[in-house]
Write a structure and sequence with these properties.
By secondary structure, the chain is mainly alpha-helical. The protein contains 21 helices and two strands. The chain has helices spanning 2-12, 14-43, 61-116, 120-131, 137-150, 154-167, 173-185, 189-196, 204-216, 220-232, 238-255, 260-269, 272-275, 278-290, 294-307, 311-314, 325-336, 343-356, 359-372, 376-388, 392-421; strands spanning 47-52, 55-60. It has a two-stranded antiparallel ribbon. The longest helix has 56 residues, at 61-116.
Protein backbone atom coordinates (compact mmCIF):
# COMPACT_ATOMS: atom_id res chain seq x y z
CA UNK A 1 0.00 0.00 0.00
CA UNK A 2 2.74 2.55 0.86
CA UNK A 3 4.51 1.69 -2.39
CA UNK A 4 1.32 2.29 -4.31
CA UNK A 5 0.84 5.59 -2.55
CA UNK A 6 4.46 6.58 -3.32
CA UNK A 7 3.99 5.61 -6.95
CA UNK A 8 0.87 7.71 -7.23
CA UNK A 9 2.70 10.66 -5.64
CA UNK A 10 5.64 10.25 -8.00
CA UNK A 11 3.29 9.98 -10.99
CA UNK A 12 1.54 13.15 -9.95
CA UNK A 13 4.81 15.07 -9.53
CA UNK A 14 5.54 17.15 -12.70
CA UNK A 15 9.33 16.99 -12.15
CA UNK A 16 9.33 13.19 -11.88
CA UNK A 17 7.20 12.89 -15.01
CA UNK A 18 9.60 15.12 -16.92
CA UNK A 19 12.64 13.07 -15.87
CA UNK A 20 10.90 9.82 -16.86
CA UNK A 21 10.05 11.20 -20.30
CA UNK A 22 13.61 12.35 -20.91
CA UNK A 23 15.05 8.97 -19.88
CA UNK A 24 12.60 7.14 -22.15
CA UNK A 25 13.46 9.45 -25.06
CA UNK A 26 17.23 8.86 -24.72
CA UNK A 27 16.79 5.09 -24.37
CA UNK A 28 14.73 4.96 -27.54
CA UNK A 29 17.26 7.17 -29.31
CA UNK A 30 20.20 4.97 -28.23
CA UNK A 31 18.43 1.79 -29.30
CA UNK A 32 17.59 3.34 -32.66
CA UNK A 33 21.18 4.49 -33.13
CA UNK A 34 22.55 1.05 -32.24
CA UNK A 35 20.17 -0.62 -34.67
CA UNK A 36 21.15 1.84 -37.38
CA UNK A 37 24.85 1.19 -36.85
CA UNK A 38 24.36 -2.56 -36.99
CA UNK A 39 22.43 -2.29 -40.26
CA UNK A 40 24.99 0.11 -41.72
CA UNK A 41 27.89 -2.16 -40.72
CA UNK A 42 26.19 -5.20 -42.29
CA UNK A 43 25.88 -3.57 -45.68
CA UNK A 44 29.22 -1.75 -45.49
CA UNK A 45 31.84 -3.78 -47.46
CA UNK A 46 34.46 -1.09 -47.59
CA UNK A 47 37.98 -1.48 -46.23
CA UNK A 48 40.94 0.70 -45.30
CA UNK A 49 44.51 0.16 -46.46
CA UNK A 50 47.33 1.48 -44.28
CA UNK A 51 50.76 1.48 -45.91
CA UNK A 52 53.95 2.16 -43.97
CA UNK A 53 56.82 0.61 -45.97
CA UNK A 54 57.75 -2.11 -45.68
CA UNK A 55 54.46 -2.79 -43.82
CA UNK A 56 50.99 -3.02 -45.33
CA UNK A 57 47.85 -3.34 -43.19
CA UNK A 58 44.36 -3.86 -44.56
CA UNK A 59 41.36 -3.37 -42.23
CA UNK A 60 37.65 -3.40 -42.70
CA UNK A 61 36.12 0.04 -42.50
CA UNK A 62 33.83 -1.07 -39.66
CA UNK A 63 36.77 -2.21 -37.55
CA UNK A 64 38.65 1.01 -38.23
CA UNK A 65 35.68 3.10 -37.15
CA UNK A 66 35.33 1.00 -33.98
CA UNK A 67 39.02 1.45 -33.17
CA UNK A 68 38.83 5.18 -33.74
CA UNK A 69 35.76 5.44 -31.46
CA UNK A 70 37.52 3.41 -28.76
CA UNK A 71 40.66 5.57 -29.08
CA UNK A 72 38.56 8.69 -28.74
CA UNK A 73 36.86 7.37 -25.60
CA UNK A 74 40.16 6.32 -24.02
CA UNK A 75 41.79 9.63 -24.90
CA UNK A 76 38.86 11.64 -23.56
CA UNK A 77 38.86 9.89 -20.20
CA UNK A 78 42.65 10.06 -20.01
CA UNK A 79 42.58 13.84 -20.52
CA UNK A 80 39.82 14.19 -17.97
CA UNK A 81 41.79 12.15 -15.42
CA UNK A 82 44.98 14.18 -15.95
CA UNK A 83 43.07 17.47 -15.78
CA UNK A 84 41.28 16.39 -12.61
CA UNK A 85 44.58 15.36 -11.04
CA UNK A 86 46.18 18.72 -11.84
CA UNK A 87 43.16 20.64 -10.47
CA UNK A 88 42.93 18.56 -7.31
CA UNK A 89 45.07 20.87 -5.05
CA UNK A 90 42.99 23.90 -6.04
CA UNK A 91 39.77 22.01 -5.40
CA UNK A 92 41.04 20.87 -2.01
CA UNK A 93 41.95 24.44 -1.09
CA UNK A 94 38.56 25.67 -2.23
CA UNK A 95 36.82 22.91 -0.31
CA UNK A 96 38.75 23.71 2.86
CA UNK A 97 38.01 27.43 2.46
CA UNK A 98 34.31 26.67 2.10
CA UNK A 99 34.41 24.46 5.19
CA UNK A 100 36.24 27.16 7.18
CA UNK A 101 33.72 29.77 6.03
CA UNK A 102 30.82 27.55 7.00
CA UNK A 103 32.40 26.84 10.40
CA UNK A 104 33.03 30.57 10.97
CA UNK A 105 29.45 31.41 10.05
CA UNK A 106 28.22 28.72 12.41
CA UNK A 107 30.35 30.15 15.22
CA UNK A 108 29.13 33.67 14.49
CA UNK A 109 25.53 32.46 14.56
CA UNK A 110 26.22 30.65 17.82
CA UNK A 111 27.74 33.83 19.27
CA UNK A 112 24.63 35.80 18.33
CA UNK A 113 22.34 33.21 19.88
CA UNK A 114 24.36 33.07 23.10
CA UNK A 115 24.58 36.86 23.33
CA UNK A 116 20.85 37.41 23.01
CA UNK A 117 20.27 34.57 25.46
CA UNK A 118 22.39 36.47 27.99
CA UNK A 119 25.21 33.91 28.11
CA UNK A 120 27.98 36.44 27.53
CA UNK A 121 30.95 34.17 28.32
CA UNK A 122 29.92 31.65 25.64
CA UNK A 123 29.08 34.45 23.23
CA UNK A 124 32.51 36.04 23.68
CA UNK A 125 34.30 32.71 23.15
CA UNK A 126 32.36 31.92 19.97
CA UNK A 127 32.72 35.45 18.56
CA UNK A 128 36.47 35.51 19.31
CA UNK A 129 36.88 32.23 17.42
CA UNK A 130 35.02 33.66 14.43
CA UNK A 131 37.16 36.82 14.16
CA UNK A 132 40.11 35.21 12.33
CA UNK A 133 38.03 32.89 10.17
CA UNK A 134 34.87 34.76 9.26
CA UNK A 135 34.34 37.02 6.29
CA UNK A 136 32.53 39.27 8.78
CA UNK A 137 35.51 39.63 11.10
CA UNK A 138 34.62 43.22 12.11
CA UNK A 139 31.09 42.16 13.07
CA UNK A 140 32.49 39.24 15.10
CA UNK A 141 34.90 41.59 16.91
CA UNK A 142 32.09 44.00 17.78
CA UNK A 143 29.92 41.14 19.02
CA UNK A 144 32.82 39.92 21.18
CA UNK A 145 33.21 43.48 22.54
CA UNK A 146 29.54 43.62 23.50
CA UNK A 147 29.77 40.24 25.21
CA UNK A 148 32.90 41.31 27.11
CA UNK A 149 31.12 44.49 28.16
CA UNK A 150 28.26 42.39 29.48
CA UNK A 151 30.83 40.58 31.63
CA UNK A 152 32.23 43.98 32.76
CA UNK A 153 35.58 42.98 31.25
CA UNK A 154 36.35 46.45 29.95
CA UNK A 155 39.98 45.79 28.98
CA UNK A 156 39.00 42.87 26.74
CA UNK A 157 36.13 44.94 25.38
CA UNK A 158 38.49 47.76 24.38
CA UNK A 159 40.89 45.26 22.78
CA UNK A 160 38.08 43.84 20.63
CA UNK A 161 37.03 47.35 19.61
CA UNK A 162 40.60 48.12 18.56
CA UNK A 163 40.58 44.97 16.40
CA UNK A 164 37.25 46.01 14.91
CA UNK A 165 38.74 49.40 14.10
CA UNK A 166 41.65 47.72 12.33
CA UNK A 167 39.29 45.53 10.31
CA UNK A 168 36.94 48.36 9.28
CA UNK A 169 37.29 52.03 8.27
CA UNK A 170 37.92 54.55 11.02
CA UNK A 171 34.45 56.04 10.65
CA UNK A 172 32.68 52.68 10.47
CA UNK A 173 29.19 53.41 11.79
CA UNK A 174 28.69 50.02 13.42
CA UNK A 175 31.88 50.24 15.48
CA UNK A 176 31.50 53.92 16.40
CA UNK A 177 27.88 53.57 17.51
CA UNK A 178 28.66 50.41 19.47
CA UNK A 179 31.61 52.00 21.25
CA UNK A 180 29.60 55.13 22.09
CA UNK A 181 26.71 53.04 23.43
CA UNK A 182 29.03 50.96 25.62
CA UNK A 183 30.80 54.06 26.96
CA UNK A 184 27.47 55.59 27.86
CA UNK A 185 26.48 52.44 29.71
CA UNK A 186 29.76 52.81 31.60
CA UNK A 187 28.84 56.41 32.51
CA UNK A 188 31.54 57.98 30.35
CA UNK A 189 29.44 60.49 28.37
CA UNK A 190 32.28 62.81 27.33
CA UNK A 191 34.24 59.92 25.83
CA UNK A 192 31.09 58.87 23.98
CA UNK A 193 30.71 62.40 22.58
CA UNK A 194 34.30 62.36 21.35
CA UNK A 195 33.78 59.00 19.65
CA UNK A 196 30.60 60.16 17.90
CA UNK A 197 32.50 63.14 16.45
CA UNK A 198 34.22 60.63 14.13
CA UNK A 199 30.98 60.29 12.15
CA UNK A 200 30.78 62.90 9.41
CA UNK A 201 27.06 62.32 8.93
CA UNK A 202 25.13 61.04 11.92
CA UNK A 203 22.10 58.83 11.51
CA UNK A 204 19.20 58.75 13.95
CA UNK A 205 20.66 56.19 16.36
CA UNK A 206 23.90 58.18 16.64
CA UNK A 207 21.94 61.39 17.29
CA UNK A 208 19.97 59.70 20.07
CA UNK A 209 23.17 58.48 21.69
CA UNK A 210 24.69 61.95 21.41
CA UNK A 211 21.59 63.47 23.00
CA UNK A 212 21.87 61.10 25.96
CA UNK A 213 25.59 61.82 26.27
CA UNK A 214 25.06 65.59 26.20
CA UNK A 215 22.33 65.30 28.83
CA UNK A 216 24.59 63.28 31.13
CA UNK A 217 27.39 65.80 30.56
CA UNK A 218 24.95 68.66 31.31
CA UNK A 219 25.77 70.36 28.00
CA UNK A 220 22.34 71.88 27.60
CA UNK A 221 22.86 74.05 24.54
CA UNK A 222 23.83 71.06 22.33
CA UNK A 223 20.83 69.23 23.81
CA UNK A 224 18.53 71.92 22.47
CA UNK A 225 19.99 71.55 18.96
CA UNK A 226 19.77 67.75 19.01
CA UNK A 227 16.16 67.74 20.20
CA UNK A 228 15.18 69.83 17.19
CA UNK A 229 16.93 67.43 14.79
CA UNK A 230 15.37 64.36 16.38
CA UNK A 231 11.93 65.95 16.36
CA UNK A 232 12.24 66.52 12.60
CA UNK A 233 13.12 62.85 12.20
CA UNK A 234 9.95 61.85 14.11
CA UNK A 235 11.90 60.30 17.00
CA UNK A 236 9.99 62.46 19.48
CA UNK A 237 6.49 63.79 19.18
CA UNK A 238 5.85 67.47 19.91
CA UNK A 239 5.01 66.86 23.58
CA UNK A 240 8.11 64.78 24.29
CA UNK A 241 10.38 67.20 22.47
CA UNK A 242 8.89 70.17 24.33
CA UNK A 243 9.37 68.44 27.67
CA UNK A 244 13.04 67.76 26.95
CA UNK A 245 13.51 71.26 25.55
CA UNK A 246 11.99 72.96 28.59
CA UNK A 247 14.12 70.90 30.96
CA UNK A 248 17.24 71.80 28.99
CA UNK A 249 16.31 75.50 28.97
CA UNK A 250 15.73 75.45 32.73
CA UNK A 251 19.02 73.70 33.46
CA UNK A 252 20.89 76.00 31.10
CA UNK A 253 19.54 79.05 32.97
CA UNK A 254 20.57 77.53 36.31
CA UNK A 255 24.12 77.05 35.03
CA UNK A 256 24.29 80.77 34.16
CA UNK A 257 22.89 81.88 37.55
CA UNK A 258 26.27 83.21 38.75
CA UNK A 259 26.93 85.41 35.73
CA UNK A 260 24.42 88.19 35.07
CA UNK A 261 25.50 88.86 31.49
CA UNK A 262 25.55 85.16 30.56
CA UNK A 263 22.17 84.69 32.21
CA UNK A 264 20.64 87.56 30.28
CA UNK A 265 22.11 86.29 26.99
CA UNK A 266 20.72 82.83 27.65
CA UNK A 267 17.31 84.29 28.46
CA UNK A 268 17.26 86.31 25.25
CA UNK A 269 17.99 83.18 23.17
CA UNK A 270 14.90 81.40 24.50
CA UNK A 271 11.94 81.60 22.07
CA UNK A 272 9.12 83.91 23.17
CA UNK A 273 6.61 81.07 23.53
CA UNK A 274 8.92 79.17 25.88
CA UNK A 275 9.65 82.29 27.93
CA UNK A 276 6.01 82.39 28.96
CA UNK A 277 6.09 78.80 30.21
CA UNK A 278 5.62 78.81 33.99
CA UNK A 279 8.53 76.45 34.67
CA UNK A 280 10.99 78.42 32.56
CA UNK A 281 9.71 81.70 33.99
CA UNK A 282 10.07 80.42 37.58
CA UNK A 283 13.67 79.32 37.05
CA UNK A 284 14.57 82.56 35.25
CA UNK A 285 12.91 84.70 37.94
CA UNK A 286 14.76 82.86 40.73
CA UNK A 287 18.08 83.30 38.93
CA UNK A 288 17.54 87.02 38.28
CA UNK A 289 16.38 87.58 41.86
CA UNK A 290 19.53 85.86 43.14
CA UNK A 291 21.65 88.26 41.05
CA UNK A 292 19.63 91.32 42.08
CA UNK A 293 17.82 91.71 38.76
CA UNK A 294 14.47 92.17 40.45
CA UNK A 295 12.89 94.39 37.78
CA UNK A 296 13.45 91.81 35.05
CA UNK A 297 12.36 89.00 37.37
CA UNK A 298 9.06 90.76 38.11
CA UNK A 299 8.53 91.43 34.41
CA UNK A 300 9.07 87.75 33.61
CA UNK A 301 6.54 86.72 36.27
CA UNK A 302 3.94 89.22 35.07
CA UNK A 303 4.19 88.07 31.45
CA UNK A 304 4.02 84.41 32.40
CA UNK A 305 1.01 84.59 34.73
CA UNK A 306 -0.87 86.70 32.21
CA UNK A 307 -0.43 83.80 29.77
CA UNK A 308 -1.09 80.98 32.25
CA UNK A 309 -1.83 81.38 35.94
CA UNK A 310 0.52 79.58 38.33
CA UNK A 311 0.27 79.92 42.10
CA UNK A 312 3.82 78.71 42.69
CA UNK A 313 5.22 81.30 40.31
CA UNK A 314 3.25 84.14 41.87
CA UNK A 315 4.94 83.38 45.19
CA UNK A 316 8.17 84.81 43.71
CA UNK A 317 6.47 88.12 42.96
CA UNK A 318 7.12 89.39 46.49
CA UNK A 319 10.85 88.63 46.33
CA UNK A 320 13.25 91.62 46.36
CA UNK A 321 12.28 94.56 48.54
CA UNK A 322 13.44 97.16 46.01
CA UNK A 323 11.66 98.48 42.97
CA UNK A 324 8.22 99.97 42.62
CA UNK A 325 6.40 98.05 45.36
CA UNK A 326 3.20 100.08 44.99
CA UNK A 327 2.89 99.17 41.32
CA UNK A 328 3.37 95.52 42.18
CA UNK A 329 0.68 95.72 44.87
CA UNK A 330 -1.74 97.25 42.38
CA UNK A 331 -0.90 94.60 39.80
CA UNK A 332 -1.35 91.79 42.32
CA UNK A 333 -4.66 93.22 43.52
CA UNK A 334 -5.89 93.25 39.92
CA UNK A 335 -5.10 89.53 39.76
CA UNK A 336 -6.94 89.02 43.02
CA UNK A 337 -10.20 89.91 41.30
CA UNK A 338 -9.84 86.78 39.12
CA UNK A 339 -8.23 84.59 41.81
CA UNK A 340 -9.73 85.67 45.14
CA UNK A 341 -8.96 82.40 46.92
CA UNK A 342 -5.41 81.81 45.72
CA UNK A 343 -3.30 81.31 48.86
CA UNK A 344 0.00 82.06 47.07
CA UNK A 345 -1.34 85.37 45.74
CA UNK A 346 -2.67 86.38 49.16
CA UNK A 347 0.70 85.55 50.72
CA UNK A 348 2.52 87.61 48.06
CA UNK A 349 0.17 90.56 48.66
CA UNK A 350 0.69 90.31 52.43
CA UNK A 351 4.47 90.35 52.02
CA UNK A 352 4.35 93.24 49.54
CA UNK A 353 2.17 95.31 51.86
CA UNK A 354 4.52 94.52 54.76
CA UNK A 355 7.49 95.73 52.65
CA UNK A 356 5.61 98.96 52.00
CA UNK A 357 4.63 99.39 55.64
CA UNK A 358 0.91 98.78 55.07
CA UNK A 359 0.58 96.72 58.26
CA UNK A 360 -3.18 96.42 58.36
CA UNK A 361 -3.52 95.30 54.77
CA UNK A 362 -0.56 92.98 55.19
CA UNK A 363 -2.13 91.28 58.20
CA UNK A 364 -5.49 90.97 56.45
CA UNK A 365 -3.97 89.37 53.35
CA UNK A 366 -1.79 86.98 55.36
CA UNK A 367 -4.66 85.86 57.57
CA UNK A 368 -6.87 85.38 54.49
CA UNK A 369 -4.17 83.26 52.87
CA UNK A 370 -3.82 81.09 56.00
CA UNK A 371 -7.57 80.58 56.10
CA UNK A 372 -7.43 79.25 52.52
CA UNK A 373 -4.29 77.14 52.92
CA UNK A 374 -2.17 77.22 56.08
CA UNK A 375 1.49 76.91 55.08
CA UNK A 376 4.66 77.34 57.09
CA UNK A 377 5.74 80.30 54.90
CA UNK A 378 2.45 82.14 55.53
CA UNK A 379 2.64 81.55 59.30
CA UNK A 380 6.29 82.66 59.25
CA UNK A 381 5.44 85.89 57.42
CA UNK A 382 2.57 86.60 59.81
CA UNK A 383 4.82 85.85 62.82
CA UNK A 384 7.42 88.32 61.53
CA UNK A 385 4.69 90.92 60.99
CA UNK A 386 3.29 90.42 64.52
CA UNK A 387 6.80 90.73 65.88
CA UNK A 388 7.22 94.08 64.12
CA UNK A 389 3.88 95.21 65.55
CA UNK A 390 5.02 94.26 69.06
CA UNK A 391 2.57 91.35 69.46
CA UNK A 392 5.04 88.86 70.97
CA UNK A 393 2.43 86.27 72.00
CA UNK A 394 0.80 86.21 68.56
CA UNK A 395 4.24 86.06 66.95
CA UNK A 396 5.20 83.05 69.12
CA UNK A 397 2.00 81.21 68.16
CA UNK A 398 2.62 81.67 64.45
CA UNK A 399 6.31 80.77 64.78
CA UNK A 400 5.30 77.50 66.42
CA UNK A 401 2.70 76.74 63.77
CA UNK A 402 5.22 77.55 61.06
CA UNK A 403 7.74 75.16 62.62
CA UNK A 404 5.17 72.38 62.99
CA UNK A 405 4.10 72.68 59.35
CA UNK A 406 7.72 72.74 58.19
CA UNK A 407 8.46 69.53 60.12
CA UNK A 408 5.38 67.84 58.62
CA UNK A 409 6.41 68.91 55.13
CA UNK A 410 9.94 67.61 55.62
CA UNK A 411 8.62 64.30 56.95
CA UNK A 412 6.28 63.91 53.99
CA UNK A 413 9.07 64.76 51.56
CA UNK A 414 11.48 62.23 53.10
CA UNK A 415 8.74 59.58 53.10
CA UNK A 416 8.06 60.21 49.44
CA UNK A 417 11.78 59.84 48.63
CA UNK A 418 11.94 56.54 50.51
CA UNK A 419 8.94 55.18 48.57
CA UNK A 420 10.52 56.26 45.31
CA UNK A 421 13.78 54.53 46.24
CA UNK A 422 11.94 51.33 47.13
Amino acid sequence: MPCAITARRCASDPDVEGVALRVAFWLILLFALAAGLVVAARYNTGYALLVLPPYRVELSLNLLLGLLAAAFVVGYFTVRAVSGTLQLPARVRKYRAVRRREAAQAMLLEALQEYFAGRYARAEKAAASAIDQSEHAALAAILAARAAHGLRAFERRDAYLVRAGALAPADDVLRVVTEAELLLDQRRPQDAINILKMLNKKHTAALRLELKAQQLSKNWEPVLQLVGQLEKRKVFDAEQAQRIRLHAQSENLKRKALDGRALEEAWQKIPAAEKRDNRIAAVAAQCFVALGGCALAHQIIEQSVEESWDGDLIGLYAECEGGDVVRRIERAESWLESHPHDAALLLALGRLCAHQGLWGKAQSYLEAGISVEPTYTAHLALAQLQEKLGNADAARIHYRKSLDLAVVQLRDASGGRRKTAV
